[in-house]
Amino acid sequence: MNEANQKIGFIDNSRLITESLVRAGADVFIGYPITPANLLYYYANKRFPSFFAAPDEITTIQLMSGFAATGKVPVTATSFPGFALMIESINMAYMMELPMVIVLVQRLGPSTGSATGGAQGDISLVSNIISGGLAIPVFSVSDSLDCWNISAKCVEMSVKQKTPVILITSKEEIMTQLSFDLNKLVEIKPVQRKFYEKDEAFKPYLAGDSLIPEFLPLTNTKHQVRYTASTHNVDGILQNSTIEALANTERLHKKNILHINDYTFFEYDKQDSADTIIISYGITSMAAMVAVETLRNEG
């Protein structure tokens, strides 16, 4: 791009993620401050329509679930120690099919580890947090443009799929200040919400070919709405091991797999003569691209 057409700003990716989430339709942030996710907490307090400081990470997801059930799109940001406390409640929101976005900023572990040290130690964790091995959407960002574009997709997917979505990043990506051309940012429009409008009794877990049920907030005055984290049928009635209830649980996994191509993003740098493929994501992807280019130049 011609330098005359550039709009250079000194910025960090926390700000890009926050702005993208809000523009995409996320409207409430609930969080408990933790290093190195503090900048997201700071910017959210200034930018989100509603902001709530939770007393701990368990309460955070519980509050988010309540807001999601009333038609809001809640967001939080944390690191491993906080995320570990959230896992049970994320499973609850997953079972209830409530939209929300959790930004996980990785740091050096295990346990409290080194709060200001970078690492990518939560990759296996996020892929397996749902009991039973059910699929949960996880996105990873590799640069500033990803932070802008992928954050918006997280909101879109959480709403359309009715599921918690995890955006995984790292300390370096979130806290580093950098020069960035703001003209590269595309317009983001808020996701369009669709609510159940029929006169027939609302069945909160009845799904068609898309495997995604319709949504109706608890605040509606026309229909009874049941949300439960226990094994249930299409009406939200608790059942133990009936065929209908177990099929409903299996659907939670299948719906995320069915639509995975709509939310899979990657950059493919093709080289016809190559016999080795290198896959990288997150903060290491930029180093990987430089390494590949160096190897190509060396023949």
Fold blueprint:
Blueprint: E1 8-12, H1 13-24, E2 28-31, H2 38-47, E3 50-53, H3 57-69, E4 74-78, H4 80-96, E5 100-106, H5 123-127, E6 138-140, H6 144-161, E7 164-170, H7 171-175, E8 177-181, H8 243-258, H9 284-297
Parallel strand pairs: 2-3, 2-4, 4-5, 5-7, 6-7
Antiparallel strand pairs: 1-8
Helix pairs in contact: 1-2, 1-6, 3-4
Strand tally is: 8
The average pLDDT value, as a whole number, equals 95
Sheet with most strands: strand arrangement: 3-2-4-5-7-6
Order of helices and strands: EHEHEHEHEHEHEHEHH
Offer a quick outline of the entry.
The protein is an alpha/beta fold and 299 residues long. It folds into two domains: 3-184, Thiamin diphosphate (ThDP)-binding fold, Pyr/PP domains (Rossmann fold, 3-Layer(aba) Sandwich); 266-297, no CATH class. The chain is 37% helix and 13% strand.
